[in-house]
Amino acid sequence: MKRSFVPYCITAAILVFFYLPILVLVVNSFNASRFGGSWEGFSLVWYGRLLGHREIWHALTNSLIIAVSSSIVSVLLGTTAALALHRYATRLQKAHYMLIYTPLVMPEILMGISMLLFFIAAGMQLGLATIFLAHVTFCISFVAMVVLGRLQDFDFSIIEAAQDLGANWWQSTWKVLVPLLMPGLVAGGLLAFTLSIDDFVITFFVAGPGSTTLPIRIYSMIKHGSPPLINALSTILLVVTFAAVYISQHVLEDKK
Question: What is the CB neighbour count within 10 angstroms for residue 255?
């Protein structure tokens, strides 16, 4: 039977379509040209200017504060929501599942507008607090779904066995349940962190003065024409992202 190379060609074309723009971005971050239209030699000047750009680092600090705090809260609330959905099959849980699932399919612009109107009606001043609440709102759903998938093959008889051997609720939770769910918790936390630090649409609506995050700052830089700095910043973010994924994979392998 003659082997067809069409699927391989299609796969290769898709990979090139996805990753060639990223490669061009990384190469242009070392281009001495200000506009990147032509290659004018290898240079690290844009990375040097990036280090002295206070507004970018302030925006990055805001993004990290929001991403870390919202990820921690989302893991706690999302895990408890997943446990409730898995353990109890009632009509109330069906409504609960609908509430958890809705943010996954709701358009971001609709969620951003609705949260903006809610915060204004509640008299809340827009800032880091409103961004935090908004990010927790949609990150909970992603964490809950990841942990819920982990719970599909979970054997709760292990918890019952631990309790029969004298472990109380606290001990069986922290010494049995949490370690077994740790891969799902780590995956859900990383997903929440990635979604939070990368979010633009919802953050754009609920951000206030002095609470500019990194995606909003990048958007502002694009409008005012600073492509070399954006290329350098994006390259650094790519390196950090790949390093985080590599470390997380090794952590999950060790947990197994």
Answer: 12
33: phi > 0 → left, psi -120 to 50 → alpha, else beta; which?
A: beta
Same domain? 117 vs 12: no
DSSP string, 48-114: HHHHT-HHHHHHHHHHHHHHHHHHHHHHHHHHHHHHHHHH--SHHHHHHHHHHHHHHHS-HHHHHHH
Could you tell me if 109 and 19 lie in one domain? no
Answer whether residue 160 shows pLDDT above 60: yes
* CA separation for the pair 79, 86 (Å, rounded): 11
Average pLDDT, the chain: 83
Q: Are residues 131 and 90 in the same domain?
A: yes
Q: Show the domain range for 247.
A: 52-255
DSSP E strands: which ranges in 96-169?
none
Quote the crossing angle between the two packed helices 54-87 and 91-105, to the nearest 10°.
Answer: 150
Rounded CA separation 196/256 (Å): 27
Of the chain, the percentage scoring pLDDT greater than 70 comes to 91
pTM attached to this predicted model: 0.81
Alpha-carbon gap, residue 200 to 185, rounded angstroms:
25
User: How many domains does the chain divide into?
Assistant: 2
Q: Are residues 9 and 27 in the same domain?
A: yes
